[in-house]
Amino acid sequence: MRSKLAGILGAFALMAGTVGVCAEEEKPVVQPPPGMIELKLALPKPMFQGTPTNIVSDNLDRESIGKARPPYFVPEGTTNVARDKKVTSSDKYPIIGEIDYLTDGDKQAMDGSFVELAPGLQWVQVDLEAPKVVHALVIWHYHSDPRVYRDVIIQISDDVEFKEGVTTVFNNDHDNSAGLGLGKGKEWIETNEGRLIEAKGAKGRYVRLYSRGNTSNDMNHYTEVEIYGSAVE
Questions:
Q1: Which positions ≥6 away from 139 have C-beta within 8 Å?
Q2: Which tens digit of pLDDT belongs to each residue from 159-190?
Q3: Burial bucket for residue 23 (CB in 10 Å: 0-12, 13-18, 19+)
Q4: What is the DSSP string of 168-191?
Q5: pTM here?
Q6: β-strand 87-89 against 195-211: which pairing, if any?
Q7: Contact at 8 Å (CB) between 117 and 89?
Q8: How remote is the C-alpha of 48 from its chain's centroid?
């Protein structure tokens, strides 16, 4: 009798354990809208763990710290239209690295993977070779240690000199210190995830990205820029 009872209790325990495992594995699945796919990114190796405590910023996006990036959906057929495209810069002679590192596909945080530009407001510009519909950008400035880059402004245009037809898709310059207008975007702490910027279908051939130093030093850095877009119909 005791053996039979033990068997019954064991069966209930096994069932309970199985249900518990299933419950833990169940996660809400976000279905993409019709004609859309989830943008899946290949991320570089993380170089630090934990939440930084020494970052000084009055405009920091604190809500996203330590949280996984939620799924982001783009139209079917979207690709990284920046890969291996020509890059120019306001700094003709980078201090470290080469300007074409921005689009070479290497996102790792190591020597030979990033370019360092001079202090002050600097920009880099990617030529997509033809007008594109831009859905999102992902930026890795420098993620060997936690830091925040200042006055990050991203613009798209068909004008190589950015004098006409300029669309600003992101601006976290909250005090207009760059002189390009006040921005409502937030600053962020650099990690291996990079920062995904929504472009909302802005159209143009050229993408220009500004920055003005960071919380560790006055220099400007880029490891990789991915631009996800599609052809203009």
A1: 152, 194, 195, 197, 209, 222, 224, 225
A2: 999 999 999 999 999 999 999 999 999 999 99
A3: exposed
A4: EEEE--TT-TTSS------B-B--
A5: 0.86
A6: unpaired
A7: yes
A8: 17
